Amino acid sequence: MNSNFKTKITPTVKLDKGLNEETVRSISRLKNEPSWMLEFRLKALALFNAKKMPAWGPDLSAINFDDLYYYIRSQDEQKKSWAEVPAEIKNTFERLGIPQAEREYLSGVEAQFESEVVYGSLKKELEEKGVIFSDTDSALQKYPEIFQKYFAKAVPPADNKFSALNSAVWSGGSFIYVPPNVRVAMPLQAYFRINERNMGQFERTLIIADCGSYINYVEGCTAPVYSATSLHAAVVEIFVEEGARVRYTTIQNWSGDVYNLVTKRSFVAKNGVMEWVDCNLGSKVTMKYPSIYLKGEGARGETLSLAYAKAGQNQDVGGKIFHLASDTSSRIVSKSVSAGSGVSTYRGLVKISSGVKDVKTNVICNALLLGKNSVANTYPFIEIASRDVSAGHEATVSKVDEEQLYYLMTRGLSKDQAQGLIVSGFIEPIAKELPMEYAVELNRLLEIDMKGSVG
Amino acid sequence: MLEIKNLFCSINNKEILKGVDFTINPGETHIIMGPNGSGKSTLASALSGKPGVILTSGSISIDGVDITKENPTKRANLGLFLAFQYPMEIPGVSLSNALRLAYNNKTYPTDQKLSPVKFRKYLKEKAEILGISDSFLERNLNEGASGGEKKKSEILQMLVLSPKYVILDEVDSGLDVDALKKVFGAIRDIGDVGDIGIVVITHYQRILKYITPDFVHIMVEGKIVKSGGSDLVQQIEEGGYQKIDVRE
Q: How far is residue B87 CA from its own chain's centroid?
């Protein structure tokens, strides 16, 4: 599917460009928020203003915070059926294949257009079991107790400049609560769409998987191409309670003018399992290092990350895992493909606290270079303050093997086909973890992008 | 007709082939023998269009189409198949997927395309001939396969693509007797069925137990020094390559 198209629609609310106290107050007023949330936002704004831009990593100097829209509302209230969604927006999601996916293989869907969730649904039997799947704004109004217990507890506003920004102007995102021992068999999907140029999207996602529950959450992101900077600065917080398991899958395909600066963090209790499956194909710059805090004994964490950087793209991604309890294990598998003059970087940290025992960790990062000018960087850090640890690390950077290309060509495959197969083989360890429909789409996106990119 | 005319080629500026001439007609089986380093494998590489093997003079044509300057894809699509001495491992790529793409690219004998379901059935039929299990077809292309498995996979690929001319580069190395029988049984079968030109490159005489050539060529130092029938093999067995009288 092609995601590069613009939807013509007149917003019902569009705050002026730029960020100041009044912007924050307006957002909070429009949402009828309790006063504690307004205070939270204002404090976060002060933190954002006080914090410097990160001095490491990709160049972010082209982001002009005064030239962004911080809040756009395209319809007055969220709808429960596609029929009620304004035709222009509905068509947008039709073209992206969302309603069809919802019918065929999802437990529930949420669609965010600019700042607000415009559509949400959840299968009835899950609702009856007590599963909550709503936009985060509604959750603040409807479930204040559970909301306040978890909100901003994994990612405090002061964590970094962009988590502070998100905390000040957050809007939309998913709120999920899965009751004890409820297993949500099919994925819940959220779809994030930026439509306006110079848009800032700041959704906030909060997932709580109660004891012994299971959920697979999938998010997809796209935007049309504008050659005008847009910013996506989300915060995602996940709480995996005892014995629960959460898999969070991202397929990010922003257009090449979006700065994608996202903070994702998960706290994992005893015997819980957290899995990040993070695929980054689009955006101008992505900085994202999903982290996992293994807080309870027997907890397990896994980050599977895939980055594809073509000309003009900088994918700075990785993962962080903190072993804070004994008998915990973790694995990071990072695969990156750089084409043209694309830059991909793996930046990772595994930290094992003192006094914890029986810890296992394994980090594998493999980079594949397709073009003569493409770049792959690897910055793996493993800090071990305990003795009872088994740690493994492997890092490779390679080019497409000429002998492999030749071999496939002697079977009668074209050079492009041969390279396509070699690249899809390279990413297969990640692709096979995706739901089948997404794996197919991923391979198709790469195929389109790589045509003729053999260096 | 696969026609090789006065072929010279070099690798890293070192001349390896120094004027090779021979012609394979459909239905013929040729064996090329020669000591290590005589240029046999380079000949296979040159015919298939391997990058780095530079053709400095001469020509190669398939059924009248000059392929001297064509890439390996074009050569394969015209019906040439090379079974590798050391097949490459392609991690993460399933044998059946790669082979279906290849099958649907070829333009001989027709440009018939097979859907995944139909191709699967066709592939299974061919695999059965070689005693290859279904699970092998789902595996990745040569990834982690034993030497024998890789060779069988090459022959399976050959059967599936049903080329017009095949070059088997040291196909007998790494195979036990049972596997050899199966592989050459399959080669004989396709030789009998279609008008296929077969070139077997080897330095083992034992191959004659399994296949009867129409022609035997002896290659020494980049040239075919002698051609003849299978009786040539007898001479080598008795006296080695040095004793071959090239003046005859």
A: 12
